[in-house]
Design goal:
Shape: globular
Number of strands: 10
Distance between the termini: 18 Å
Number of helices: 12
Strand order of the largest sheet: 1-4-5-8
Structural class: alpha+beta
Number of domains: 3
CATH superfamily of the largest domain: Butyryl-CoA Dehydrogenase, subunit A, domain 3
Strand content: 5-15%
Mean pLDDT: 97
CATH architecture of the largest domain: Up-down Bundle
Radius of gyration: 22 Å
CATH class of the largest domain: Mainly Alpha
Order of helices and strands: HHHHHHEEEEEEEEHEEHHHHH
């Protein structure tokens, strides 16, 4: 791999960094900039989104033909890391979950008509979206084969019944993708459907309270009791729901990691700034060997995470599913984020535990990282399966074709 980035991507990174520093980070210290769920308030967000669009920093991950910036996965890694230097960054640039993953899967698998109806408004920032897959026990979670929500074919429509929960952004979403069972086939038993919030036959039962700050629209429990979806709203093909899920979640897992690296670096930044000026017992904290070891280890672990993420992005750009590369990045970076927030708080003492810095916000947010888009244990099982199948080939280098 050539780890140098193109000059145009570096220029874009610098523009994002300046926008985050000048326009977004100042909002973090303003209590009026927060909504009741710990995210950026809608009025402040709307103004910043208008500015980001005017600066040409909008929906950079979406293909240009679909109204976005057309970044490669490797370029996204560079830019997303910079965006999430602020806790509010990604949503300002229309690059936050779950819209991020939904836009990419619709761009990849949607028909022209579906892109016009369902994708374009999300890209434009006119609506938000949600991806409804996870179900309460005994339904499907990390194992989609356990999905029990069922879609019955009736003429040119499907009628959907079942239950979903922890659906990110559902309360604020207008466009939904729901994964339901259409047969008992082990590989082709699931289908993905598109529907609008105003359609009858479904409801939000509750917004589930969680430990950390929430994405806009929260994490909700949904009930489907006769939602009718036209056959034209099948995303991809009937029986290809698992393909839709894999197409969406693979990249979405990696974009989480890209953003989490930005937050991890911010934790180090806050800790380094404070320890450089704070003295105790006649010595700066930064001059203590124990502090140097803590920050040095975090710096190394962040760089390890960046290399894992960039290798996975490189593989995706070359047409690979990069399943084991993404799983390794997901495990490492999710745990790194939690550690970075924990160390940041420890080195800032009571200041870190207060809301005077965003460290406590990041700490609460970080705990979900080891659960969302597949728990650590699931990804370790995936890696072991690859190891069992590939043996020593698990670590094989990709060979360049110079012919």
């Amino acid at each position: 791999m050539d780890f140098r980035i193109p000059p145009e991507i570096e220029r874009l990174r610098i523009r994002i960094a300046e926008f985050v520093a000048d326009r977004i980070i100042p909002c973090e210290s303003d209590p009026a900039a927060f909504d009741g769920h710990g995210n950026i308030a809608e009025d402040r967000l709307s103004a910043l989104r208008t500015e980001a669009r005017a600066e040409g920093l909008w929906a950079l991950q979406v293909p240009q033909e679909d109204g976005g910036g057309g970044l490669s996965r490797m370029a996204m890694a560079v830019c997303y890391e910079e965006m999430n230097r602020s806790i509010f960054g990604p949503v300002v640039f229309n690059s936050a979950a779950p819209d991020d993953g939904n836009m990419m899967v619709l761009a990849r698998l949607g028909t022209p008509a579906q892109k016009a109806r369902w994708l374009a408004p999300i890209v434009a920032g006119e609506v938000r979206s949600a991806f409804a897959m996870t179900e309460p026990d005994p339904g499907g979670g990390s194992d989609p084969s356990m999905i029990r929500t069922f879609a019955e074919r009736r003429g040119d429509r499907y009628v959907i019944r079942g239950r979903k929960w922890f659906i990110t952004g559902a309360e604020g979403a207008a466009h939904f993708i729901v994964v339901a069972r259409t047969s008992d086939d082990a590989r082709r038993g699931l289908t993905a459907f598109l529907f609008h919030r105003d359609q009858p036959g479904w409801e939000i039962l509750r917004r589930i309270p969680i430990m950390g700050p929430e994405e806009h629209g929260g994490h909700c429990e949904l009930a489907f009791d006769g939602l009718e979806v036209p056959a034209a709203n099948v995303l991809s093909e009937v029986g290809h729901g698992l393909k839709v899920t894999q197409t969406r979640l693979g990249v979405a897992r990696l974009t989480h990691c890209m953003r989490w690296l930005g937050l991890s670096k911010r934790c180090v930044e806050i800790a380094a700034e404070y320890t450089a000026r704070r003295e105790g017992f006649g010595i700066r904290l930064a001059d203590r060997e124990s502090v140097q070891m803590m920050l040095g280890d975090l710096a190394m672990q962040i760089e390890v995470g960046r290399l894992l993420v960039m290798k996975a992005a490189w593989a995706l750009d070359r047409g690979s599913f990069a399943r084991k590369e993404i799983s390794m990045a997901k495990i490492h970076v999710a745990n790194l984020l939690h550690k970075a927030a924990d160390v940041g708080i420890q080195l800032n003492g009571a200041r870190g535990y207060s809301t005077d810095t965003p460290l406590e916000w990041i700490y609460r947010y970080a705990r979900q990282a080891r659960l969302v888009d597949g728990a650590d244990e699931v990804h370790r099982m995936v890696l072991n399966r690859h190891l069992a199948e590939e043996g020593r080939g698990f670590w094989a280098w990709a060979v360049r074709d110079d012919d």
